[in-house]
Design a protein that fits this description.
Distance between the termini: 28 Å
Helix content: 25-40%
Order of helices and strands: HEHHEHHEEHEEHEHEHEH
Number of strands: 9
Strand order of the largest sheet: 2-9-8-1-7-3-4
Shape: globular
Oligomer: single chain
Length: 259
Amino acid sequence: DAEIVKRRRDFEAMNVLMVGFDSLSRNAFIRKLPKAYNFLTNELKADVLKGYNIIGDGTPQALIPILTGFTELELPETRKRKFSAQHVNVYPFVWKNYEDVGYVTAFNEDQPKIGTFSYRLKGFDEQPTDHYMRNYYVAIEADLHHSKKLCIGSRPRHQVMLDYTVDFLQKYNGTNPCFGFSFHAELSHDSINLIGVADEDITYWLKKLQKSNLLTNTLLIMMSDHGNRFMETRNSLNGKMEERLPFFSFVFPEKFKRK
């Protein structure tokens, strides 16, 4: 409506795109995704946080404060095992603020059985954002045994999410500002090494964002929730440090920097 248009005009509406990988420390990102890291830092001039610390143990404890501004204990009860629990829609998610000023929103997360808001918490009882990939991942579960490992049909599953994310931006480019958060867990949640198979794909995806000029008005945040929590490396001093120091980076549009 006219009020939303006015509020959007009052500031330069910049897209905000968050892309996260589960259980990936800053050092692990550098080791396992060297091509993507080099492109991020050398070509896209990303600002990488070198002392970013987790504030709790596990994905919800990391993402809830990022997405709401509160810790889980400060928010209404949403744990499944509690009689009084509500669905997590009650949380003041940041995408609601973006929707209020006319943004189109998306929340994409693979691994629905261990999802951030559905494994231990009650999950959503209504679609939280305009675009929401959970329905897709639930629908394909029955067919995954027909595909090769980590693929759906002939496509790597991480590539499906990356493509969906860039398609989301392209769909509304020039018409609506967008807020999107895509969080991929399958490759990195249980293994400190497997994420390396996606290095070239992630690098190509970043190049695609750049060449299509989608980053000229987009704040790109590439991040993780925490370092690896299950591998033997966690028993070492380095492993304990890395688990607490996830990857977090920002790529700001040049015109935003100049302004």
